[in-house]
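Friendly challenge for the regulars: who can give me the structure tokens for this chain first? No prize, just bragging rights.
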Amino acid sequence: MGKMEKNLISKLEKVSKNISSGTLPYPTLDVIQNSTFYEEVKNVYKNLGGILSEIPINLRKWDIEIDGIAFELDEQLHFNRYRNITLQSNIYEQLPKFPLSSYVTYCKYYEEACISAGSYGGKWSNDSCEKQFGKASSLKNFNGVGAPRWKQRAFYDFVKDLTNLLFNIPLVRISIHDVIIINNNKIPVKEVVENSGSYGSLELYELIKERTQLFD
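First reply, four minutes later:
Bragging rights claimed.
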């Protein structure tokens, strides 16, 4: 767990007593295979350059579970050309609460931040990712296969986005590039979650509520 995620949990614990971990389901291969989304998931995997005959699904538990909501904090590594490919799926037409236009913009304008944070070692590629997408290109080289680890992360983010459709469980994503209003000032979420105090706790909680159908 990274520093920003730890700070985020600490902040949310100040505004909700219902924080949990490992209790909410997330998509598995079996669930997807038996859903109406299977073919589209396969298409997205192939569009990313996937080379396996069956889609690879090996997801981790949610970053945070709050008030029965699955919550993910998306940091620098989640915004790049590969995530943008997944965001073109027509599945997002069925997810009106998803911040699609903002996420597409972040993928286009913040890829340099992703390169700075994720163009070395296992953040660029590893054996598991190369089995799914092929041999990595050299660092920072997007010709050919590019960055298998980035592709894997983008694909897994996409699969997790199906949660509300598969289980009727709200999934809320907030990006460090999102902006919230604190004392009439526009503050990037990154600045808020880098702060270990209670600063921005209520405003972050309100943003979560805005992005989930539970509070309609």
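The first helix runs from residue 3 to 13. The chain is about 45% helix and 10% strand. Your move, everyone else.
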